UniProtKB/TrEMBL annotation:
<keyword id="KW-0238">DNA-binding</keyword>
<dbReference type="Pfam" id="PF03466">
    <property type="entry name" value="LysR_substrate"/>
</dbReference>
<keyword id="KW-0804">Transcription</keyword>
<dbReference type="InterPro" id="IPR005119">
    <property type="entry name" value="LysR_subst-bd"/>
</dbReference>
<dbReference type="InterPro" id="IPR036388">
    <property type="entry name" value="WH-like_DNA-bd_sf"/>
</dbReference>
<feature type="domain" description="HTH lysR-type">
    <location>
        <begin position="9"/>
        <end position="66"/>
    </location>
</feature>
<dbReference type="Pfam" id="PF00126">
    <property type="entry name" value="HTH_1"/>
</dbReference>
<keyword id="KW-0805">Transcription regulation</keyword>
<protein>
    <submittedName>
        <fullName>LysR family transcriptional regulator</fullName>
    </submittedName>
</protein>
<dbReference type="InterPro" id="IPR000847">
    <property type="entry name" value="LysR_HTH_N"/>
</dbReference>
<dbReference type="InterPro" id="IPR036390">
    <property type="entry name" value="WH_DNA-bd_sf"/>
</dbReference>
<comment type="similarity">
    <text>Belongs to the LysR transcriptional regulatory family.</text>
</comment>
Length: 303
Protein backbone atom coordinates (compact mmCIF):
# COMPACT_ATOMS: atom_id res chain seq x y z
CA UNK A 1 0.00 0.00 0.00
CA UNK A 2 1.06 3.63 -0.46
CA UNK A 3 2.29 5.19 2.79
CA UNK A 4 2.26 9.00 3.02
CA UNK A 5 5.68 10.40 3.86
CA UNK A 6 4.14 12.58 6.54
CA UNK A 7 3.09 9.45 8.43
CA UNK A 8 6.16 7.31 7.78
CA UNK A 9 8.75 9.96 8.64
CA UNK A 10 7.49 10.60 12.18
CA UNK A 11 10.71 11.60 13.88
CA UNK A 12 9.49 10.67 17.36
CA UNK A 13 8.47 7.15 16.33
CA UNK A 14 11.70 6.62 14.38
CA UNK A 15 13.71 7.82 17.36
CA UNK A 16 11.93 5.32 19.58
CA UNK A 17 12.63 2.52 17.10
CA UNK A 18 16.33 3.35 16.74
CA UNK A 19 16.78 3.77 20.50
CA UNK A 20 15.22 0.37 21.21
CA UNK A 21 17.60 -1.24 18.72
CA UNK A 22 20.57 0.54 20.30
CA UNK A 23 19.55 -0.10 23.90
CA UNK A 24 18.26 -3.63 23.41
CA UNK A 25 15.07 -3.35 25.45
CA UNK A 26 11.94 -1.18 25.61
CA UNK A 27 12.68 -0.37 29.24
CA UNK A 28 16.18 0.94 28.59
CA UNK A 29 14.95 2.88 25.56
CA UNK A 30 12.20 4.50 27.63
CA UNK A 31 14.76 5.54 30.25
CA UNK A 32 17.08 6.97 27.59
CA UNK A 33 14.24 8.92 26.00
CA UNK A 34 12.75 10.01 29.35
CA UNK A 35 9.43 8.41 28.44
CA UNK A 36 7.25 5.73 29.96
CA UNK A 37 7.48 2.24 28.51
CA UNK A 38 3.81 2.28 27.40
CA UNK A 39 4.48 5.50 25.50
CA UNK A 40 7.43 3.93 23.67
CA UNK A 41 5.39 0.81 22.91
CA UNK A 42 2.58 2.97 21.51
CA UNK A 43 5.01 4.72 19.16
CA UNK A 44 6.32 1.39 17.86
CA UNK A 45 2.81 0.01 17.33
CA UNK A 46 1.91 3.13 15.36
CA UNK A 47 5.05 2.88 13.23
CA UNK A 48 4.50 -0.82 12.55
CA UNK A 49 0.91 -0.07 11.54
CA UNK A 50 2.05 2.63 9.12
CA UNK A 51 4.73 0.53 7.41
CA UNK A 52 2.63 -2.63 7.49
CA UNK A 53 5.40 -4.82 8.95
CA UNK A 54 6.59 -6.01 12.32
CA UNK A 55 9.77 -4.08 13.02
CA UNK A 56 10.95 -5.66 16.28
CA UNK A 57 11.11 -9.23 17.48
CA UNK A 58 10.41 -9.27 21.21
CA UNK A 59 11.49 -11.85 23.76
CA UNK A 60 12.16 -12.06 27.50
CA UNK A 61 15.74 -11.06 26.74
CA UNK A 62 14.87 -7.84 24.92
CA UNK A 63 14.09 -6.71 21.40
CA UNK A 64 15.98 -7.04 18.12
CA UNK A 65 15.04 -5.74 14.68
CA UNK A 66 13.07 -8.07 12.44
CA UNK A 67 13.93 -8.51 8.78
CA UNK A 68 11.76 -5.48 7.95
CA UNK A 69 13.30 -3.59 10.86
CA UNK A 70 16.80 -4.24 9.53
CA UNK A 71 15.73 -2.78 6.19
CA UNK A 72 14.28 0.34 7.84
CA UNK A 73 17.10 0.92 10.34
CA UNK A 74 19.70 2.61 8.05
CA UNK A 75 17.09 4.94 6.56
CA UNK A 76 15.75 5.76 10.02
CA UNK A 77 19.24 6.72 11.18
CA UNK A 78 19.72 8.89 8.09
CA UNK A 79 16.42 10.70 8.68
CA UNK A 80 17.27 11.42 12.32
CA UNK A 81 20.77 12.58 11.39
CA UNK A 82 19.35 14.91 8.71
CA UNK A 83 16.89 16.39 11.19
CA UNK A 84 19.72 16.93 13.67
CA UNK A 85 21.77 18.72 11.03
CA UNK A 86 18.77 20.88 10.17
CA UNK A 87 18.35 21.77 13.83
CA UNK A 88 21.99 22.84 14.08
CA UNK A 89 21.66 24.92 10.92
CA UNK A 90 18.63 26.74 12.35
CA UNK A 91 20.40 27.21 15.67
CA UNK A 92 23.28 28.90 13.82
CA UNK A 93 21.00 30.99 11.59
CA UNK A 94 21.23 34.62 12.68
CA UNK A 95 23.49 33.66 15.59
CA UNK A 96 26.55 35.81 16.20
CA UNK A 97 29.36 33.28 16.42
CA UNK A 98 32.35 33.99 18.65
CA UNK A 99 35.37 32.10 19.91
CA UNK A 100 37.97 30.30 17.83
CA UNK A 101 37.29 27.73 15.12
CA UNK A 102 40.25 25.33 14.92
CA UNK A 103 40.61 24.06 11.37
CA UNK A 104 43.03 21.75 9.61
CA UNK A 105 43.73 21.11 5.95
CA UNK A 106 45.95 19.02 3.75
CA UNK A 107 48.63 21.20 2.12
CA UNK A 108 47.10 21.44 -1.35
CA UNK A 109 43.37 21.74 -2.04
CA UNK A 110 42.68 22.37 -5.72
CA UNK A 111 38.97 21.63 -6.03
CA UNK A 112 37.87 24.00 -3.27
CA UNK A 113 38.32 27.75 -3.07
CA UNK A 114 39.27 27.57 0.60
CA UNK A 115 40.33 31.24 0.92
CA UNK A 116 36.94 32.33 -0.42
CA UNK A 117 35.12 30.09 2.06
CA UNK A 118 37.16 31.43 4.98
CA UNK A 119 36.64 35.03 3.85
CA UNK A 120 32.88 34.50 3.52
CA UNK A 121 32.72 32.98 6.99
CA UNK A 122 34.66 35.93 8.42
CA UNK A 123 32.32 38.39 6.70
CA UNK A 124 29.28 36.56 8.06
CA UNK A 125 30.69 36.20 11.58
CA UNK A 126 33.29 38.93 12.18
CA UNK A 127 33.74 38.02 15.86
CA UNK A 128 34.67 34.42 15.03
CA UNK A 129 38.43 33.82 14.99
CA UNK A 130 39.87 31.02 12.87
CA UNK A 131 43.12 29.11 13.18
CA UNK A 132 44.20 26.98 10.22
CA UNK A 133 46.96 24.38 10.38
CA UNK A 134 48.22 21.99 7.72
CA UNK A 135 49.06 18.33 8.12
CA UNK A 136 48.77 14.82 6.74
CA UNK A 137 45.43 13.01 6.42
CA UNK A 138 46.26 10.68 9.33
CA UNK A 139 47.36 13.51 11.61
CA UNK A 140 44.39 15.72 10.80
CA UNK A 141 41.78 13.00 11.35
CA UNK A 142 43.49 12.01 14.63
CA UNK A 143 43.30 15.61 15.85
CA UNK A 144 39.61 15.80 14.92
CA UNK A 145 38.98 12.53 16.79
CA UNK A 146 40.65 13.74 20.00
CA UNK A 147 39.16 17.23 19.78
CA UNK A 148 42.24 19.37 19.14
CA UNK A 149 40.71 20.35 15.79
CA UNK A 150 37.05 21.18 15.21
CA UNK A 151 37.14 20.17 11.53
CA UNK A 152 39.65 19.30 8.83
CA UNK A 153 39.73 19.20 5.05
CA UNK A 154 41.20 15.87 3.97
CA UNK A 155 41.74 13.92 0.76
CA UNK A 156 39.75 10.87 -0.29
CA UNK A 157 39.95 7.92 -0.42
CA UNK A 158 40.49 7.55 3.32
CA UNK A 159 38.83 5.66 6.18
CA UNK A 160 37.41 7.70 9.08
CA UNK A 161 38.66 6.68 12.54
CA UNK A 162 36.21 5.91 15.31
CA UNK A 163 34.25 8.98 16.31
CA UNK A 164 34.89 10.88 13.05
CA UNK A 165 32.65 11.27 10.02
CA UNK A 166 33.57 12.39 6.51
CA UNK A 167 31.31 14.64 4.44
CA UNK A 168 32.29 14.56 0.77
CA UNK A 169 32.70 18.05 -0.70
CA UNK A 170 34.07 17.35 -4.18
CA UNK A 171 34.71 14.27 -6.27
CA UNK A 172 36.55 14.10 -9.60
CA UNK A 173 37.63 11.41 -12.03
CA UNK A 174 41.31 11.41 -12.87
CA UNK A 175 42.27 12.07 -16.48
CA UNK A 176 45.54 11.82 -18.39
CA UNK A 177 46.32 15.03 -20.26
CA UNK A 178 48.41 14.49 -23.37
CA UNK A 179 49.99 16.67 -26.07
CA UNK A 180 47.99 16.42 -29.28
CA UNK A 181 50.94 14.76 -31.05
CA UNK A 182 51.29 12.04 -28.38
CA UNK A 183 50.67 8.52 -29.65
CA UNK A 184 47.85 7.99 -27.14
CA UNK A 185 46.13 11.33 -27.77
CA UNK A 186 42.65 10.87 -29.18
CA UNK A 187 42.06 7.51 -27.49
CA UNK A 188 38.94 7.20 -25.38
CA UNK A 189 40.68 5.83 -22.30
CA UNK A 190 44.06 4.74 -21.02
CA UNK A 191 44.67 2.02 -18.44
CA UNK A 192 46.76 2.45 -15.32
CA UNK A 193 49.08 -0.33 -16.52
CA UNK A 194 49.73 1.60 -19.73
CA UNK A 195 50.37 4.76 -17.69
CA UNK A 196 52.88 2.86 -15.55
CA UNK A 197 55.12 2.55 -18.61
CA UNK A 198 55.24 6.33 -19.16
CA UNK A 199 57.04 9.20 -17.49
CA UNK A 200 54.33 11.57 -16.27
CA UNK A 201 53.60 14.62 -14.11
CA UNK A 202 51.02 14.87 -11.34
CA UNK A 203 50.21 16.46 -7.98
CA UNK A 204 52.39 15.86 -4.88
CA UNK A 205 51.77 13.43 -1.97
CA UNK A 206 49.06 14.56 0.42
CA UNK A 207 46.74 15.86 -2.30
CA UNK A 208 43.49 14.10 -3.14
CA UNK A 209 44.74 13.22 -6.62
CA UNK A 210 47.99 11.71 -5.40
CA UNK A 211 46.29 9.81 -2.57
CA UNK A 212 43.92 8.10 -5.02
CA UNK A 213 46.63 7.53 -7.61
CA UNK A 214 49.15 6.02 -5.18
CA UNK A 215 46.50 3.69 -3.79
CA UNK A 216 45.62 2.46 -7.28
CA UNK A 217 49.27 1.83 -8.19
CA UNK A 218 49.85 -0.03 -4.91
CA UNK A 219 46.76 -2.18 -5.42
CA UNK A 220 48.05 -3.30 -8.84
CA UNK A 221 51.66 -3.67 -7.59
CA UNK A 222 52.88 -1.07 -10.07
CA UNK A 223 55.55 1.60 -9.71
CA UNK A 224 54.71 5.07 -11.09
CA UNK A 225 57.33 6.96 -13.11
CA UNK A 226 56.69 10.48 -11.86
CA UNK A 227 59.07 13.10 -13.27
CA UNK A 228 57.39 16.32 -12.10
CA UNK A 229 55.15 17.36 -9.19
CA UNK A 230 53.33 20.61 -8.46
CA UNK A 231 50.41 21.39 -6.16
CA UNK A 232 48.65 23.56 -8.76
CA UNK A 233 47.10 21.54 -11.63
CA UNK A 234 47.67 24.47 -13.98
CA UNK A 235 51.40 24.26 -13.34
CA UNK A 236 51.35 20.52 -13.98
CA UNK A 237 49.61 21.10 -17.30
CA UNK A 238 52.05 23.87 -18.16
CA UNK A 239 54.90 21.39 -17.64
CA UNK A 240 53.17 18.94 -19.97
CA UNK A 241 52.81 21.66 -22.61
CA UNK A 242 56.52 22.44 -22.36
CA UNK A 243 58.05 18.96 -21.83
CA UNK A 244 55.58 16.74 -23.63
CA UNK A 245 55.17 14.27 -20.75
CA UNK A 246 51.60 13.21 -19.87
CA UNK A 247 49.94 14.77 -16.81
CA UNK A 248 47.48 13.20 -14.37
CA UNK A 249 45.14 15.74 -12.76
CA UNK A 250 41.44 15.71 -11.85
CA UNK A 251 38.75 16.45 -14.39
CA UNK A 252 38.64 17.12 -18.10
CA UNK A 253 39.51 20.83 -17.99
CA UNK A 254 42.82 21.09 -19.82
CA UNK A 255 45.21 23.57 -21.47
CA UNK A 256 45.67 24.58 -25.13
CA UNK A 257 47.43 21.94 -27.17
CA UNK A 258 46.44 19.11 -24.82
CA UNK A 259 43.70 16.49 -24.85
CA UNK A 260 42.16 14.78 -21.82
CA UNK A 261 41.80 10.99 -21.79
CA UNK A 262 40.00 9.22 -18.94
CA UNK A 263 42.15 6.99 -16.77
CA UNK A 264 40.56 3.53 -16.52
CA UNK A 265 41.17 -0.04 -15.39
CA UNK A 266 40.58 1.06 -12.75
CA UNK A 267 38.60 4.28 -13.08
CA UNK A 268 40.07 6.41 -10.33
CA UNK A 269 38.22 9.09 -8.40
CA UNK A 270 39.80 11.59 -6.06
CA UNK A 271 37.92 13.78 -3.66
CA UNK A 272 37.95 16.25 -0.81
CA UNK A 273 35.98 15.72 2.40
CA UNK A 274 35.36 17.57 5.63
CA UNK A 275 36.23 15.54 8.72
CA UNK A 276 34.23 16.35 11.85
CA UNK A 277 33.48 14.60 15.09
CA UNK A 278 30.58 12.16 14.81
CA UNK A 279 28.65 13.83 17.60
CA UNK A 280 25.19 15.26 18.04
CA UNK A 281 26.77 18.28 19.74
CA UNK A 282 28.27 19.93 16.67
CA UNK A 283 29.44 23.50 17.16
CA UNK A 284 27.39 25.99 15.11
CA UNK A 285 30.65 27.43 13.79
CA UNK A 286 31.54 24.06 12.24
CA UNK A 287 28.15 23.90 10.54
CA UNK A 288 28.58 27.46 9.22
CA UNK A 289 32.03 26.58 7.86
CA UNK A 290 30.67 23.42 6.20
CA UNK A 291 27.95 25.43 4.45
CA UNK A 292 30.52 27.87 3.08
CA UNK A 293 32.68 25.00 1.82
CA UNK A 294 29.76 23.44 -0.05
CA UNK A 295 29.49 26.61 -2.13
CA UNK A 296 33.25 26.89 -2.65
CA UNK A 297 33.82 23.96 -5.02
CA UNK A 298 35.90 24.93 -8.03
CA UNK A 299 33.83 23.65 -11.00
CA UNK A 300 36.58 23.81 -13.62
CA UNK A 301 38.23 20.65 -12.35
CA UNK A 302 35.11 18.58 -11.77
CA UNK A 303 33.51 15.97 -14.06
Amino acid sequence: MHVPYSELMDAHALECFVTIVDQGTFTKAADALHLTQPAVSAQIRRLEHVVGHRLLDRSVHGAVPSAAGRELLPAAREVLAALERARHALDAFGLELTGTLRLGSIPSVTTLDLPRALAALTAEHPKLAMRLTEGSIADLTRQVAVGTLDAAIIALPADPPTGVRFTTLTRSRLHIHLPLHHRFAGTRALSLRRLAGLDFATLPPGTATRTALDLAFTTLHLEPRIVFEASDPARVLAFTQAAGHPAVVPGIATAPGLSAVQLTQPTIESGIALATRDSAAERPAVDAFARQLMTAATPAWLT
